[in-house]
Amino acid sequence: MSKNRGIYKLATHRHTSYASNVQNKIERYLRKQGGRMTGVRHEIVSVMAALDGPKTAYQILESANKKRKSKLSAISVYRTLDFLTKAGAALKFESQNAYELCLCDKSEHSHLMMICDKCGHIREIEAPELSKTLSKTAKDHGHRLKHHVIELHGICSSC
To answer: Which end of the chain has fewer beta carbons closer than 10 Å to its terminal beta carbon, N or C?
Structure first.
């Protein structure tokens, strides 16, 4: 996956290095939390890196099971996706119930995602002032904002 001025697009021929970068991010998180990288976690990250764009848990499961002799269960995929999301290594797009890998190095980070409802293209926009405002608002109300994903739906300029 290459990040070009906020536009996420998976470069399939580069998915191995992308998966490796995400694996490294997860391993750093695990060292801090005292956890470990399991075979299933490693496999799910590799599968997600090879898929183009956000995918549902069942799409990830189907892709993973194509390569396995013994099939993964849906609950294994959901638990792994939950872990990846908490680790900051994956984003969940609530409106699509879909997941995508995230390489952002900041432990506390924000995502402003513009989603085209016609073609499905997703573009991440950096909006530091919005992030500051949201963090301040949360703090003013006694809440420490750790992470958020804001989805803006519409039609992209290409459509």
So the answer is: C
The structure's pTM equals 0.72
Residue 122 Cα distances to 2, 7, 16, 95, angstroms: 13, 7, 22, 12
Q: Each residue of 21-40: b (16+ CB within 10 Å) or e?
A: bbbebbbebbeeeeeeeeeb
Structural domains of the chain sorted by starting position, each given as residue range(s) with its CATH number in brackets = 2-101 (1.10.10.10), 109-154 (3.30.1490.190)
